[in-house]
Design a protein that fits this description.
Four Helix Bundle (Hemerythrin (Met), subunit A); mainly alpha
């Protein structure tokens, strides 16, 4: 009974939160949405790996992960898929620009990490998630 009450409360809370959500809803074709969600989960895993590497003092490796998995070079992974499966062309221009800022920030973090300067690398860590936070604060896909 207690679990059922918690489930009902969670459902009601979710509905209230959705009603109060003022972020811009971005409608994407189903395949593009699935690919965008997969990319966001991959970015989250990459940020976690980067944090682990920085904590272990492996700055160059952290930079390589940022560049390879989140940088400008990571773009275009869906270009060979049908148009409806490519997230980029379906995004509002401002949302797309935030994403580009995130890719550039990852490359800049990689450049700093490659110097081996731990203090500057640690100071640059928040730059990896600024675009993520900005985008998730302004936009939603559900």
């Amino acid at each position: 009974m207690k679990a059922r009450c918690f489930a009902i409360l969670a459902l009601l809370t979710a509905n209230l939160q959705a009603a109060d959500d003022t972020r811009q809803l971005v409608s994407l074709p189903a395949a593009a949405e699935a690919n965008l969600r997969a990319e966001m989960r991959a970015n989250l895993r990459a940020v976690n790996e980067i944090l682990e590497l920085v904590a272990a003092g492996k700055l160059a490796e952290a930079g390589q992960v940022a560049e390879k998995q989140m940088g400008l070079g990571a773009m275009g992974k869906y270009r060979s898929e049908p148009f409806a499966a490519r997230p980029g062309p379906h995004l509002p221009a401002a949302m797309h620009a935030i994403g580009m800022d995130g890719h550039r920030a990852a490359d800049e973090f990689a450049r700093i990490a490659a110097t081996g300067d731990r203090e500057r690398t640690v100071a640059a860590l928040p730059s990896l998630t600024v675009a993520c936070v900005a985008c998730h604060h302004a936009y939603r896909i559900r």
